[in-house]
UniProtKB/TrEMBL annotation:
InterPro entries: Cyt_P450, Cyt_P450_B, Cyt_P450_CS, Cyt_P450_sf. This is Cytochrome P450. Belongs to the cytochrome P450 family. GO terms for molecular function: heme binding; iron ion binding; monooxygenase activity; oxidoreductase activity, acting on paired donors, with incorporation or reduction of molecular oxygen.
Amino acid sequence: MQDAMEAGLAPRPDHVPADRVRDFDLYNVPGAAEDIQAAYAAIQQSSPDIFWTPRNGGHWVATRGEDILVMQRDHSRFSYQQIVLPPMPEGTPRQIPLEIDPPEHARYRRPLMQALLPSIVSELEENVRQVAIDAAERLRPLGECEFVEDFAKVLPIHVFLELVKIPLDDKAYLLTIAEDSVRGSTAEIRLGAQHAMGAYLLPWIRARRDNPGDDLLSKLVNVDISGERISEAEAISYATLVLFGGLDTVAGMIAFIARFLALNPGHRRQLVERIDDEAFLKNAIEELIRRHGLANTARIITHDFDYKDNRFRAGDRILPANLFVGVDDRITADPLEVDFDREKPVHAAFGNGAHACPGAVLARREIRIFLEEWLKRIPEFRIKPGTQPVLATGMVNGVLRLDLVWP
């Protein structure tokens, strides 16, 4: 036990059987440099359905879709009160609204849901599409690009900063902070990113609390809970979490999809040929999302209970990683294969239940616009010879670099 502690590993609790222990580090997954989702699928195939790892403070991992879907919906046993690994230092402000359980959660979530209704997202579409067109047109004559910086991050950050009415000139600074927040391998790095984002947002938050507008930031920082406006500290936490989500996750999904299409010309040509077939494109997008899950959120066990043949104890942490659902061969046949004609692709990329991602409609719209406008202008592209895509694992998996070329 002493050797484990010296190596930075948590000692195995008495209620965890020795045969359930696996050495799994979500910040360093074997094989992830080539294909993150395939690396997770390999863990799924070689491990118990639920196992315990001494890494990142020590926690359980659920690998099968059946269990993950239960854990996403059952907040009474699997609470969202602590969602990151390793856990943040004691006293760290909770991430609003993600680290709040129902029914309190609904009151914080409501303004975000109302701001991202399908009808409102449709109103944004013209602007989103123009950003995609401008970026693709600028890149097309160059014959190459670093896709993450030149396109994948451009689309969501333009859209999101427009929603919150924050200057686009600040995007480079904000993206750097977002990277540390979602893929920082230590609690100190992630906490530093939260503090940096909070410090950046504070003057904007104070201005919107003094003179609210009709933008998303004004709605978030003036949430009314039981007749009282949330505190400034809560407003900072809320705005910080939403900004991180808006800046990083959509960019990550777009980059994963671009990487897949660069490596799979047959699938790319299928999309090019049927890009105007709305039903086909909608299903193809769900299939691409299924294959390229990226978000991870942990849970904390609320009380002692047995789940299947596992003994959970109050305070245990568990990682029901979303992407395991999409690559689960008990749910999807040949899950690592992408089949655009697959009926009703099953995934949990946007979560389920009370905490399902309120930005899912906007994310799907941005992915669709990316495919439509990019493929119409740059239908043939591949990985630049001599380069390798740079992938990263963490609480949100992502693509850090993707060099593409085209005729």
